[in-house]
Amino acid sequence: MSNCCHGHSHGGGSGGHEHSHGPSDASDAENFRGQEFNLYLKIEMDSLTCLNESEEGSGKNVFRAYEDRLDRSKFVSSDVDEELLFNIPFQGTVKLKGLLIIGGERETHPNKMRLFKNRPNMSFDDSRAKADQEIDVHVDQDGFIEYKPIVARFSDVHHLSIHFPSNHGNADNTEVFYIGLKGDYMEAYRHEVTIAAYEARANPADHKTSSLNQVNHFVS
Predict the structure, then answer these.
(1) Residue 65 CA, distance from chain mean position
(2) Which carries the bigger pLDDT value, residue 91 or residue 25?
(3) Which distant-in-sequence residues (6+ apart) come within 8 Å of 189 by Cβ?
(4) Could you tell me which residues come within 8 angstroms of residue 154 by beta carbon, excluding any fewer than 6 positions away?
C-alpha cells in the first residue's frame, strides 16, 4: 500500500467556479506547507541516530526546514549496504500526520519505508520485526509526494524509527536528502513538574507545631 498523496489539488466549487493562482498564492502555499512540516524543531537532535550512515552524524542533516529541502549539499548515504535506520526521539508526544521523502537519483532513492512507533534504540536486528506500517516510496526529487501514516496508530509517538530496507535500483548505497515530518505536538509531562507539585502541597508532618499552635490559638 502506497499511502501517498501527490501534492495539493483544488476542486471547483458549486456551479463550476474556477479561479487562477498567482505568484502570491504559490508563495502562501509554500509558506503554509513549511509551517506544517516543522516537527524537525521538536526532535531531540543530540539523541537522534542513523545506523549504517557512511559519514558519522550526516543522518541528522536530513531533518531541516521545508524551505531548505532542496539543498543537495546535505544528505546521508548508506555505508556497507543499502539499508538505513533512523531512530528519532521527540521532545514530547507527536501525532504523526504526514511524511516527505527526498532521495537520491533513481537507483539510490529508497523504494520503501517501514515505520516503528515507540521502540527506542532500534537495531537492524530489531527492524526484522513486523513494522507498525510499511509504505512504498516513489522517486521524488522535490518533496512533492506526501505519505500518510495511519494517524490512529501514530497518535501518541514519543519515538519514531524509520527503516529504509532497499532502493529502486538495487544499488549498494541508498541516499536520503530530506525527511519532512508533519503532525501535532504536545509537550512532555516532565517528572520535575510532578515533584514541584508535590512539594507545593502542605505535608502535615512538616507542620505539626504550627498546626498545634493554631489549635491552641482558637481554644484560647
Answers:
(1) 12
(2) 91
(3) none
(4) 94, 95, 96, 115, 117, 132, 133, 160, 183
Predicted pLDDT at 46: 98
C-alpha separations of 71 from 7, 63, 100, 107, 180 in Å:
20, 12, 15, 20, 13
**Nearest 5°: CA angle at 113, between 106 and 151?**
130
Handedness of CA 186, 184, 153, 144 (dihedral sign): negative
For all residues of the chain together, what is the average pLDDT? 84
CA distances from 88 to 32, 37, 42, 179, 203 (A): 24, 15, 10, 11, 41
For residues 8-23, average pLDDT:
40
> How many Cα atoms within 13 Å fall on the side-chain side of residue 4?
20
Number of Cβ within a 10 Å radius of residue 202: 9
Residue with cell 515530518: 181
Rg (CA), the chain: 24
3-class DSSP assignment, residue 109: coil
If we measure between CA atoms, which residue out of 139, 132, 114, 148 comes closest to residue 4?
Answer: 148
Alpha-carbon gap, residue 95 to 130, rounded angstroms: 21
Q: Is 76 exposed, middle or buried (0-12, 13-18, 19+ CB in 10 A)?
A: buried
Cell of 47: 539523541
